[in-house]
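Quick one:
INPUT:
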């Protein structure tokens, strides 16, 4: 009888231990991810002196955008003794100032003429694509094609350098007058001053020169022409 009680007690002990072992382990919830947005570096007093821009110009753009100005750097080729004076290295040069805004179109439209009269160009230098503010920059210049030179706009995949893109744009001025309102390393935005008489024909030329424009939302030349009429401008893009 004693052995039976000992065996029964041992069996119960094993059963209880196994039940505890099978108890699911509660998983701890992962800590929520924290996304830190770095604060933009503001245009310092030293950079303001280096630019030697009119203080009124900087203040007027800051006031219109409602934010402080940031430095704008262009990419420049650097000579290297190791490359025997070649231009194989790239560096950054302070070329102007920028502001971040969700109303880039209105800001550029309102300030383009008065700034250009004083020898400055204002343009969209970086797109926020709706989720972030656009970056609008101001540089010295009197010709809107200087914007492409500063940004080094090109398409390696389509074998188009900055000079070729500028030459194509100048050719289109015969059919429609426009002003460059934005440019990046592989894109250009322009606003019509006088629209082309045949928007579909103009859209076809845009699609042939920058085929990636048709690879996105517009898809067809007809839709691109309608978009150009609606926005009173056009854009070039090479992915």
């Amino acid at each position: 009888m004693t052995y039976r009680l000992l065996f029964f007690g041992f069996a119960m002990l094993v059963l209880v231990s196994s039940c505890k072992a099978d108890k699911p382990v509660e998983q701890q919830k992962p800590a929520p991810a924290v996304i830190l947005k770095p604060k933009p570096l503001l245009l310092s007093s030293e950079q303001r002196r280096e630019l030697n821009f009119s203080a009124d110009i900087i203040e007027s753009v800051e006031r219109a955008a409602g934010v402080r100005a940031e430095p704008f750097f262009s990419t420049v080729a650097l000579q290297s003794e190791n490359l025997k004076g070649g231009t194989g290295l790239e560096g950054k040069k302070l070329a102007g100032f920028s502001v971040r805004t969700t109303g880039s179109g209105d800001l550029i439209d309102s300030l383009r003429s008065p700034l250009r009269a004083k020898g400055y160009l204002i343009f969209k230098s970086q797109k926020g694509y709706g989720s972030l503010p656009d970056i609008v920059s101001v540089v010295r210049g009197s010709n809107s094609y200087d914007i492409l030179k500063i940004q080094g706009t090109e398409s390696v995949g389509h074998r188009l350098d900055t000079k070729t893109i500028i030459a194509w744009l100048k050719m289109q001025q015969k059919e429609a007058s426009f002003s460059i309102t934005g440019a990046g390393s592989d894109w250009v935005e322009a606003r019509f001053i006088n629209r082309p008489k045949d928007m579909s024909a103009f859209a076809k030329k845009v699609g042939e020169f920058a085929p990636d424009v048709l690879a996105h939302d517009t898809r067809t030349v007809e839709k691109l022409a309608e978009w150009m009429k609606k926005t009173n401008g056009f854009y070039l893009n090479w992915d």
